TrEMBL record:
The chain crosses the membrane at residues 9-28, 63-83, 103-121, 133-153, 160-182, 188-205, 236-261, 281-302, 335-355, 367-384. InterPro entries: SecY/SEC61-alpha (IPR002208), SecY_dom_sf (IPR023201). This is Preprotein translocase subunit SecY. One of its GO terms (cellular component) is membrane. Keywords: Membrane, Transmembrane, Transmembrane helix. One of its GO terms (biological process) is protein transport. Belongs to the SecY/SEC61-alpha family. SUPFAM superfamilies: Preprotein translocase SecY subunit. It comes from Parablautia intestinalis.
Length: 400
């Protein structure tokens, strides 16, 4: 990045770098694993769960080098969030960024290996007998290697390009939408109508905000009446949808592990069978996770407690409220209402197509069409904002 700061065409270099990252990622998504029977997946169709997981996975059939995609990274990020929350409760000593990164790398490796070993049992290979075991081990190693390559690509894009890992998720979603439309071009009317509603709902929530009037002690002019604390109606964007997929995948991995340890347990087997997005129990679990993560991420990222503490230290305050505990309680309540509303809108966009799938009114592959459009819109909005920021930096760079 230091070398790019001196370049004349700063934004062009970043766009070109991101384009190269995208090309490498697309190439990896089209490299089949060792000895996999690719012909067996040519006419394979997906369901709601497969299409939703594609956003964080590598490819819809999961038989390529990047089969696991970003799933291990996102699952490890969730686990790290839990670890750090427990760490803060137990001790006031902060963990160093290097130690945090090392722990996350170990988690990613463990999750990748576990996911790869489960996935190779489901893959179809064109070899049999003793060669099948070798093919499965080779494919598992390739999948874990693919995860490391995807991590490297996201880090490079975050440092030298635009969008970080969001760009790769964007590619996954676009690929899923294009394949769905091409396969079911005559059956997309109802999903398309729901998608249009989801698109406008996402744009409205991303572009709207709640403005809480503020009283600044350092401003005594005409602008004093225009001070406010802004909170988006969609506080954390569409991030909870993607992380809900990661959390759901984590639950499935846990159930698979428990079933392996206790193969005779009927309760574990029943949960494992029901924890799918083609079952009411799985759908309800996913929606509950979505609500939990939306509210949790909003509280973690916006942090009403820290805002109240900063206002208390600076002497500023919300109109007609005392600084400190009263302000924290007020902000927490407002944020809970907004994040609950955001989660409800996303749940409706998710839930209606899933219910229609259960009744047989929508094909399984078309269920996630509205959700894909919603995620695509939210990610595009964030990428657009990042592009505007980089463009503004380029305009002011001669004065820095």
């Amino acid at each position: 990045m230091q070398r790019l700061k001196g370049k004349k065409y700063f934004i062009e270099y970043k766009l070109a770098y991101t384009a190269i990252i995208i090309l490498v990622y697309i190439l990896g998504r089209n490299i089949p694993l060792h000895s996999v029977d690719v012909s067996a997946y040519k006419a394979a169709s997906g369901n709601a769960e497969i299409m939703l997981m594609q956003a964080i996975g590598g490819d819809v059939n999961q038989y390529s080098l990047f089969a696991l995609g970003l799933a291990p990274l996102m699952i490890s990020s969730l686990l790290m969030l839990i670890v750090m929350s427990c760490w803060k409760i137990r001790t006031k000593v902060k963990m160093s960024p290097k130690k945090m990164k090392d722990i996350q790398l170990i988690l990613i490796l463990i999750i990748s290996v576990f996911q790869a070993l489960i996935r190779v049992q489901e893959l179809r290979f064109d070899v049999i007998g003793k060669l099948l075991f070798t093919a499965r081990i080779t494919a598992a190693v390739e999948m874990v290697t693919g995860v490391m390559l995807v991590m490297w690509l996201t880090e490079r894009n975050k440092k030298y390009g635009l969008g970080g890992q969001v760009v790769l998720i964007y590619i996954n979603i676009i690929d899923g939408i294009m394949k769905t439309v091409m396969r079911y071009n005559t059956e997309t009317l109802l999903p398309l109508c729901v998608s249009i509603v989801a698109l406008f709902a996402t744009l409205i929530m991303e572009g709207s905000e709640l403005r809480i009037p503020m009283q600044r002690i350092s401003i005594y002019n005409v602008y004093a009446d225009k001070n406010y604390l802004a909170i988006k109606l969609n506080p954390v964007g569409v991030m909870p949808v993607m992380f809900s997929s990661a959390f759901f995948t984590l639950l499935k991995l846990i159930m698979s592990g428990l079933h392996w340890l206790f193969p005779e347990s009927e309760a574990i087997l029943r949960w494992q069978e029901n924890l799918v997005l083609t079952n009411p129990v799985g759908i309800g679990t996913y929606i509950a996770i979505l609500y939990f993560l939306t509210i949790g991420f909003a509280m973690k990222i916006i942090s009403p407690g820290e805002i109240a503490e900063q206002l208390l230290k600076s002497g500023d305050s919300i109109m007609n409220l005392h600084a400190g505990r009263e302000t924290r309680k007020y902000l927490t309540g407002k944020l809970c209402i907004i994040s609950f509303f955001s989660a409800t809108v996303m749940s409706v966009c998710l839930g209606i197509p899933m219910i229609l799938q259960l009744t047989g009114d929508i094909n399984g592959e078309l269920v996630m069409f509205p959700v894909s459009v919603m995620m695509l819109t939210g990610l595009w909005y964030n990428l657009y904002q990042e592009f505007k920021t980089v463009k503004s930096y380029e305009a002011y760079r001669p004065f820095i």
